[in-house]
């Protein structure tokens, strides 16, 4: 895809993501801030929270094709509010951005979309659930049964998602702390979707099955000022356990957090420092050194695994750039999952 | 050896300084006028290209709605089908009496614009939140920003150096509020990289039309005719200037024959002489060309602001009044100078190269009866060709080709016609002197014919263009009287204020005529649809040039429509035909009205019909007021005071007329300037020709002097002869000029502007021009005649001693 140089590319606060959230490290300036005592309510909370500055609906899927090959799929809708006051029409401060990608062991396709809120070109409704930007959509009668679609000039996909377990809340009942200073977000996931559908690639159509993980997160000031980026893992182990673990890289030291998910969907929240991250290998990707092989240890749970990128070149060369791709897990446990790295 | 030859050749210019100045002047004038026109055209075209690049116009396919605007819901429907399109809302805003173009784009999806990149990279880049959300920001040039200084109700202004003049760039959300067109989109730009599997446009939104960049009428296309016009004028000036060069070079070579003969007798080979002379000519051409470029640059600089004003007024084309020096322009100007000089000297050079070694220094003018007959034949063919072009071809280029053939043909035919005329007149001569004068005049004709051709062209162009401009002026003034019938005009800021004002005015005036319109698109380009209320004013005054019976009754009953002449001619629609307005609506045409100074199509329906045809037309903000003229001034002031309106919001009829006339005058400033300059150059050409002939005349005058005619008498005859030839040429130029005027009015204008003008005759102007021609001819002949009168008799005697 040829990256279109769009207006405002450098201005949008979403750029802040690329800079490791540094731009959002300050105050919330009139936006709501996450509340540790917040009680989630569904389906309402599947919908948008425009009084918070940023929010996303983030789906990643590990799939296997009828051809026996592994595939990774990403579908993300970001919402960013330019300022707190809501307004109808073109001048709504809500800006939406969609990212879609398919990763194969040797290729990585991606596309992005940008839209104004307030005119119906992009948005999210909670019931029936629909998240959309242009013709891309993720929708269903409820959050457990979704159809997912994205489309570009080189690839497209249509997938059916069916939840097999409950929603999972990270941190303290969905209040996920992001730094020692207390920056936090509201964060829950649906980590157990069964997936089937079709990927359309330049080489032809592929029928796929597998599983997907959907993250929901919103906040107004997620990172501390010294934090420059993050490494985020979602791993599905073959024994039915799942692990969400992230490391925020900061000048004053890293901040880590993890959620251990049992096969029945119950969770254990692991404190800062419980998970340890070690970079085993880096690759040169898009002109920078990006870690593509990791060792993750969780001594309390007897975990010592190596996590390796399926395709080290899974670079999202979008308006703000980051690495996002499927990974393979080996060592004390085997499995697969997704890795996202920002700020490199 | 070569150095000696060069010194010898150059010695000619030392003893003939005036000749050198004349030659350089000729080259400089030809190059100067031509390159001035080129500079203006290049600058204007560069402005259009810059504006297109600055606004990313003409690079992408676009989607428009033939029914008017595209609703925002349709945009979203296209987007939700996968169509990657960017929304644009265009419009015009009146601020402090000036029209400003507003271009509102969806700043999030529109392709990158230089103005935005510039703002982004500036010292204090604006916050995107400020641009995208209320109140937004306006981007414009610093010049335009002064207009907005102190104006209320506008978002803050950001200045930019990367925008065309008279244009405000802003986010579409700001534009829809400024233009009071919420939810409306003028056009959608189709972005590159479209996803797969989109529904075809015809199924998704059949009312929308997709157009490729080439089909979008852009400024460059619209103004092509104007620039072609200027270029033609420039070429004419160039040709006339070359006549001077031809005359001077011919004279110089004739005078050098003696030196050349001596040099050759001393053993200098002819080919080396030719090369040296050729080099000399090229150097002279370069010097003259440089002077010409200097003249051209300043002339263009002086004329450009008027041209820019014209192009803005006539076509809304953005042209900056600043001239920049381009290397390509310098190179092409010098090339024209060298090429033109060599072309004008080719004949003299060739004759020189053919000169027998021992030929006498005797002088002979070029051209003879046989050559004249050949020229006349070619001229006749060209005239026939012009007629054929008129009958068979269409279009602006054909129009100019026809003009070129007509003028060249007539010029080539001139010597033959003059010779015939002189023969006829000579038959009535009585006495030997009179017979000699007529015969001598015919003998002189070949030497003067080129200068006379130049005069013919300049005079014809003057009469033709003068008639065109004056006819246009007369028609335009009459039309203004018909169109601007209301005694007062006022503009309201919004619909609410408009309603308040009309309510307040109603009991105090005879009638209030709203001016309300909307923009539709037609296959011939944009179409502005106006709604009018039923009023005697329109029925009595509106300038219909073609009409069916009861035209106004039928329009007011909603059956019919009136269209302007531009639309009628472009689409070939006349009373009785059907105009398709939208995909569903069409109306019978009841009449065609003239509409000058406006490049686009227009149509008029009743106010009620306007709401039927285009329900989303914004309410009227401008109104005409009918009331007794004596109360106009007082009412204007009352209106301003009552509603606290700025001065320019209420304008009286005569002020509006004066503004229109001022714009009109500016339109033709350049034409008139070039016209006068061309005539001046032609006069100069006669002078050089006569000076050339002067040297050649002595052998012919000497015998007559020897027979007893005094030098004074001979000088008088010289003057008379010059006057007569000029007069005859002027008489012949009249019909040619009138044909030229007719072609300009009936062919070129229709193609260039879309209107055909009636032709008026201005005999007073012709008389003045005739007198001017005689004065010019007399002045040109005065110098040689004076010389003859003061010539020491010894020179005349020497003719007999030297000759053979």
Helix content of chain A: under 10%
Task: State the end-to-end distance of chain B.
Answer: 30 Å
The SSE order of chain A reads: HEEEEEEEEEEEEEEEEEEEEEEE
And the CATH topology of chain A?
AttH-like fold
**If classified by CATH, what would the architecture of chain A be?**
Beta Barrel
Radius of gyration of chain B, Cα only, in angstroms? 33 Å
Main sheet properties of chain A? 13 strands, antiparallel
How would the global form of chain A be characterised?
globular
Largest interface summary: A-B, 37 and 43 residues
Task: Report strand % of chain B.
Answer: 5-15%
Give the N-to-C terminal Cα separation of chain A: 22 Å
In which range does the helix fraction of chain B lie? 55-70%
Quick summary:
Chain A is mostly beta strands.
Structure description:
The complex is a heterodimer of chains A (about 350) and B (about 800). With about 350 residues, chain A is mostly beta strands. Chain A contains 1 helix and 23 strands. Chain A has a single domain, classed as Beta Barrel (AttH-like fold), CATH 2.40.370. Chain A has one helix at about 15-20, and strands at about 55-65, 70-80, 95-105, 110-115, 120-125, 130-135, 135-140, 145-150, 155-165, 170, 175, 185-200, 205-220, 225-235, 240-250, 255-260, 265-270, 275-285, 290-300, 305-310, 315, 320-330, 335-340. In chain A, a hairpin with a 6-residue loop joins strand 11 (about 175) and strand 12. Chain B is an alpha+beta fold. Chain B has 3 domains: about 60-215, no CATH class; about 225-290 and about 335-475 and about 665-800, no CATH class; about 490-625, no CATH class. In chain B, helix 2 crosses helix 10 and helix 12 runs antiparallel to helix 13 (about 395-425). The longest helix of chain B has about 50 residues, at about 430-485. The model of chain B is unreliable at about 360-365 (pLDDT under 50). The interface between A and B is large, with 37 and 43 residues.
């Amino acid at each position: 895809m040829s990256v279109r140089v769009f207006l405002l590319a450098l201005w949008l606060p979403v750029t802040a993501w690329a800079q490791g959230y540094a731009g959002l490290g300050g105050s919330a300036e009139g936006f709501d801030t996450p509340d540790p005592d917040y009680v989630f309510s569904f389906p309402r909370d599947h919908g948008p929270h425009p009084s918070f500055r940023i929010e996303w609906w983030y789906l990643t899927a590990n799939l296997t094709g009828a051809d026996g090959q592994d595939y990774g799929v990403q579908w993300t809708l970001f919402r960013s509010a330019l300022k707190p006051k809501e307004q109808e029409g073109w001048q709504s401060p809500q800006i939406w951005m969609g990212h879609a990608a398919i990763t194969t062991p040797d290729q990585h396709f991606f596309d992005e979309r940008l839209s104004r809120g307030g005119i119906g070109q992009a948005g999210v409704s909670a019931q029936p659930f629909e998240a959309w930007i242009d013709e891309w959509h993720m929708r269903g009668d409820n959050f457990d049964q979704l159809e997912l679609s994205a489309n570009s000039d080189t690839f497209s996909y249509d997938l059916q998602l069916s939840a097999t377990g409950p929603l999972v809340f990270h941190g303290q009942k969905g209040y996920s702390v992001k730094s020692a200073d207390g920056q936090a977000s509201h964060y829950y996931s649906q980590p157990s979707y069964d997936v089937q559908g079709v990927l359309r690639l330049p080489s032809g159509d592929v029928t796929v099955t597998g599983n997907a993980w959907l993250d929901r997160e919103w906040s107004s000031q997620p990172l501390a000022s010294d934090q420059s980026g993050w490494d985020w893992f979602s791993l599905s182990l073959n024994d039915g356990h799942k692990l969400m673990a992230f490391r925020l890289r900061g000048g004053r030291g890293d901040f880590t957090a993890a959620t251990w998910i049992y096969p029945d969907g119950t969770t254990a929240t692991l404190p800062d420092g419980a998970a340890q991250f070690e970079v085993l290998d880096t690759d040169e990707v898009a002109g920078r050194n990006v870690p593509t092989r990791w060792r993750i240890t969780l001594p309390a749970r007897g975990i010592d695994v190596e996590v390796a990128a399926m395709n080290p070149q899974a670079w999202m060369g979008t308006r703000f750039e980051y690495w996002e791709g499927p990974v393979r897990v080996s060592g004390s446990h085997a499995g697969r999952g997704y890795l996202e790295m920002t700020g490199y | 050896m070569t150095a000696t030859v060069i010194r010898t050749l150059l010695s000619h210019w030392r003893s003939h300084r005036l000749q050198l100045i004349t030659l350089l002047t000729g080259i400089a004038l030809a190059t100067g006028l031509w390159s001035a026109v080129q500079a203006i055209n290049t600058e204007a075209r560069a402005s259009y290209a810059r504006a297109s690049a600055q606004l990313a116009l003409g690079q992408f396919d676009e989607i428009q709605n033939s029914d008017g605007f595209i609703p925002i819901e349709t945009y979203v429907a296209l987007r939700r089908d996968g169509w990657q399109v960017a929304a644009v809302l265009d419009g015009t805003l009146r601020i402090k009496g000036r029209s400003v173009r507003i271009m509102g784009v969806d700043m999030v999806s529109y392709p990158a614009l230089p103005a935005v990149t510039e703002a982004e990279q500036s010292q204090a880049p604006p916050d995107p939140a400020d641009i995208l959300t209320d109140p937004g920001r306006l981007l414009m040039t610093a010049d335009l920003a002064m207009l907005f200084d102190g104006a209320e109700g506008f978002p803050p202004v950001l200045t930019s150096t990367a925008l065309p003049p008279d244009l405000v760039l802003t986010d579409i959300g700001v534009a829809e509020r400024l233009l009071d067109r919420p939810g409306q989109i003028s056009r959608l730009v189709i972005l590159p990289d479209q996803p797969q599997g989109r529904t075809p446009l015809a199924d998704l939104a059949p009312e929308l039309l997709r157009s490729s960049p080439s089909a979008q009428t852009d400024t460059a296309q619209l103004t092509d005719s104007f620039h072609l016009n200027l270029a033609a004028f420039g070429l004419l000036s160039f040709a006339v200037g070359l006549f001077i060069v031809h005359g001077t070079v011919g004279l110089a070579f004739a005078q050098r024959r003696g030196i050349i003969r001596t040099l050759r007798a001393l053993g200098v080979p002819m080919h080396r002489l030719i090369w040296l002379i050729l080099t000399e000519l090229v150097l002279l051409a370069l010097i003259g060309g440089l002077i010409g470029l200097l003249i051209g640059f300043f002339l263009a600089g002086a004329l450009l602001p008027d041209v820019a004003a014209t192009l803005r007024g006539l076509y809304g084309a953005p042209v900056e009044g600043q001239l920049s020096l381009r290397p390509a322009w310098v190179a092409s100007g010098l090339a024209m100078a060298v090429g033109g000089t060599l072309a004008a000297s080719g004949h003299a050079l060739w004759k020189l190269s053919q000169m027998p070694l021992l030929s006498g220094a005797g002088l002979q003018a070029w051209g003879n009866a046989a050559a004249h007959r050949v020229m006349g034949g070619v001229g006749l063919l060209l005239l026939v060709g012009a007629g054929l072009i008129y009958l068979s071809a269409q279009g602006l280029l054909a129009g100019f080709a026809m003009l070129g053939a007509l003028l060249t043909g007539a010029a080539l035919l001139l010597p033959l016609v003059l010779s015939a005329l002189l023969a006829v007149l000579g038959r009535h001569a009585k006495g030997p002197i009179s017979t000699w004068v007529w015969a001598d005049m015919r003998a002189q004709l070949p030497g003067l014919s080129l200068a006379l051709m130049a005069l013919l062209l300049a005079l014809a162009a003057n009469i033709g263009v003068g008639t065109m401009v004056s006819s246009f002026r007369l028609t335009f003034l009459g039309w203004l009287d018909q169109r601007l019938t209301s005694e007062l005009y006022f503009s309201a800021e919004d619909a609410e204020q408009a309603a308040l004002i009309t309510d307040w005015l109603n009991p105090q005036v005879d009638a209030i005529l709203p001016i309300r319109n909307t923009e539709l698109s037609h296959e011939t380009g944009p179409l502005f649809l106006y709604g009018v209320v039923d009023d005697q004013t329109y029925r009595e005054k509106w300038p219909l040039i073609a009409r069916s019976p009861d035209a106004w009754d039928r329009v007011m009953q909603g059956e019919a429509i009136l269209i302007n002449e531009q639309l009628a001619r472009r689409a070939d629609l006349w009373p009785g035909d059907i105009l398709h307005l939208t995909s569903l609506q069409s109306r019978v045409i009841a009449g065609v009205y003239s509409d000058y100074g406006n490049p686009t199509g227009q149509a008029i329906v009743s106010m009620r019909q306007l709401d039927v045809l285009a329900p989303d037309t914004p309410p009227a903000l401008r109104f005409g007021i009918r009331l007794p003229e004596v109360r106009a001034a007082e009412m204007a002031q009352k209106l301003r005071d009552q509603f606290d309106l700025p001065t320019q919001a209420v304008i009286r009829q005569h002020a509006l007329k004066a503004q229109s006339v001022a714009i009109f005058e500016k339109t033709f400033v350049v034409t008139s300037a070039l016209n006068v300059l061309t005539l001046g150059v032609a006069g100069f050409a006669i002078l050089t020709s006569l000076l050339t002939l002067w040297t050649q005349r002595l052998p012919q005058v000497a015998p007559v002097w020897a027979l007893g005619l005094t030098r004074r008498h001979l000088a008088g005859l010289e003057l008379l002869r010059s006057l007569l030839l000029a007069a005859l040429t002027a008489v012949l130029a009249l019909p040619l000029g009138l044909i030229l005027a007719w072609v300009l009015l009936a062919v070129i204008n229709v193609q260039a502007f879309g209107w055909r003008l009636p032709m008026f005759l201005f005999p007073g102007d012709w008389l003045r021009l005739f007198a001017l021609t005689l004065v010019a001819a007399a002045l040109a002949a005065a110098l040689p005649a004076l010389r003859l009168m003061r010539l020491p008799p010894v020179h005349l005697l020497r003719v007999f001693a030297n000759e053979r």
